[in-house]
Amino acid sequence: MDWDDFKYFTAVANTGSVRAAAQQLSVHASTVTRRIDQFEQRLGVHLFNRSPRGLTITPEGAEVIQRVDKIADELADIETQLRGRDERLVGHVRLTLPDVLAQSVLLAELGRFNDDYPGIEIELLVDEQGLDMVRREADIAISPTNNPPDSLIGRPMTRFAVAAYGSNRYIAEHELDVDASSAKWIEAGTPGPVADFARGLREDRYPGSKVYLRCDSAMMQHAAVRAKLGLAILPCVLGDQDSDLTRLRQIEPTPGPMIWLLTHPDLRSAQRVHVLIEFIRGVFSDNNDLLMGVAKV
């Protein structure tokens, strides 16, 4: 049995096309096609139906993918349990968090951590929606959420506040310092705890306001505001530190979702994970006033 066959098969099943699977695996499309054909010949069944519209998985293929996922979960459990027993202050830790918290809070402090623990390599996985921690895509998550998964352990650190911001020039040119309901607005397009909270706040304080630009990244929303494309509900830790932006008076800093610090139960005894968690807690505690919008720079 060649486990690479399952890798090629899973890539095609997840992406829905040979070309996309080839890009994901960094190989030629012909290689993917050849491996899938060989895999089907060895199993004696068709895993995909071919048509001009692309590939659709067969019932036999769906059964294979279900079993492969189960095996992958079991292997991930073994890996995580073994890594959790490692008490050395060396190794690799995968940390996922939204880009705004990485750039506004954490990155400036990571040098201190590296000085104290030079043997620990941190991999930052920036993702607005959060990676699948349950499937071990990351070891630690800093996640704004109202409902942390029951399968993970952790604790809330702090809330972070949001407010409405616009560029100084945009607000002056459109006379928005009193009434911003007619302004162009920028907000996230994909639902989520932070996006839903910001959207509800805008609709409540500015009834009838309209969105003209959607982008999920808070950093991109910030850049769009700086480019005078409109107003946005931004985290105060981002908007307050930019002298080119003005916080609108109609929305005072409003606490949003809780920021949770989460990890796997199997990793609680891994010292490299433990020391990073304690470091992160200290950083967020030190920056609590900035996060809550009460220490405007």
Short account of what is shown:
This protein is an alpha/beta fold. The chain contains 12 helices and 11 strands. 32% of the residues are buried.
Notes on the structure:
- There is one protein chain.
- This protein has 297 residues and is α/β, with parallel strands linked by helices.
- The protein folds into 2 domains: 81 residues, Winged helix-like DNA-binding domain superfamily/Winged helix DNA-binding domain (Arc Repressor Mutant, subunit A), CATH 1.10.10.10; 208 residues, 3-Layer(aba) Sandwich (D-Maltodextrin-Binding Protein, domain 2), CATH 3.40.190.290.
- 44% of the residues lie in helices and 23% in strands.
- It contains 12 helices and 11 strands.
- Strands 3, 4, 5, 6, 7, 8, 9, 10 and 11 form a 9-stranded mixed β-sheet that branches.
- The termini are far apart.
- Give the radius of gyration: 23 Å
State the name of the first-level CATH class of the largest domain.
Alpha Beta
User: What overall form do the CA principal axes indicate?
Assistant: globular
**Count of β-strands:** 11
Number of alpha- plus pi-helical segments: 12
User: What portion of residues is helical?
Assistant: 40-55%
- Could you tell me the CATH topology label of the largest domain: D-Maltodextrin-Binding Protein, domain 2
- Domain count: the total is 2
Biggest β-sheet strands, sense, barrel: 9 strands, mixed
**How far apart lie the N and C ends?**
60 Å
The structure class reads alpha/beta
The average pLDDT score comes to: 84
Uncertain residue ranges: none
Shape-level CATH architecture of the largest domain:
3-Layer(aba) Sandwich
Strand content: 15-25%
Along the chain, the helix and strand elements come as HHHEEHEHHEEEHEHEHEHEEHH
